Task: inverse folding
């Protein structure tokens, strides 16, 4: 079984809809991250969390929110989706020396 | 200027060639350097991890860090079609220590797309 799983894997939605992307991990890591990936822009950090009581904004947090329900679960929400949020979204966990382990990604399309 | 610069390519080589992938960076505080491989429609997977300067070898892959030049490289020997992927460099200043103010955030390069032709 994969160490980091994401659901859904693909999602098409309409402008203005609320969307939640979910991430679960079995690596036992405290640190979890949400990124988006766009062609030509690489990976950009949206939010990160050190534990269930700690949430931090990344470089592009506007329009997004997160919830850390448990050590193993970290969800990303788009409160009111807009077309420029169409991207590939990755969840990752953080190891002891800063290395990160990524999930398979969610491809989100906002029409 | 981006903190980490990486030529996006694409880079096309024949099977068996030696491949050199590179990143330059501007923040001298970076100490931890990583290379990730990302296949199409997949998440990045950690390929190599290096602390500070020096070389690290793992099979056909060698990671090299030159902190004096702020330059890191990944070499792939005897390249195979299965090596065709996007390679991302990543780096951080320190490991995350909770409450210390260190975030352990990784800064990624844009990624270089590699194609190895049979």
Result:
């Amino acid at each position: 079984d994969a160490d980091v799983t994401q659901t859904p894997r693909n999602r098409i939605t309409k402008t203005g809809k609320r969307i939640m992307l979910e991430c679960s991990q079995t690596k036992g890591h405290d640190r979890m991250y949400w990124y988006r990936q766009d062609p030509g822009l690489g990976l950009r950090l949206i939010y990160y969390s050190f534990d269930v009581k700690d949430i931090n904004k990344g470089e592009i947090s506007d329009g997004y929110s997160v919830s850390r329900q448990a050590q193993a679960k970290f969800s990303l929400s788009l409160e009111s989706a807009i077309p420029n949020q169409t991207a590939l979204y990755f969840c990752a966990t953080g190891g002891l020396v800063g290395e990160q382990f990524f999930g398979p990604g969610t491809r989100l399309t906002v029409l | 200027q981006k903190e980490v610069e990486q030529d996006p390519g694409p880079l096309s080589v024949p099977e068996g060639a030696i491949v050199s992938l590179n990143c330059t960076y501007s923040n001298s505080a970076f100490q931890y350097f990583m290379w990730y491989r990302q296949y199409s429609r997949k998440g990045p997977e950690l390929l190599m991890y290096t602390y500070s300067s020096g070389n690290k070898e793992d099979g056909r892959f060698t990671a090299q860090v030159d902190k004096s030049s702020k330059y890191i490289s990944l070499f792939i020997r005897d390249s195979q079609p299965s090596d065709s992927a996007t390679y991302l460099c990543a780096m951080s200043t320190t490991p995350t220590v909770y409450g210390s103010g260190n975030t352990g955030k990784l800064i990624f390069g844009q990624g270089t797309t590699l194609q190895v032709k049979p």
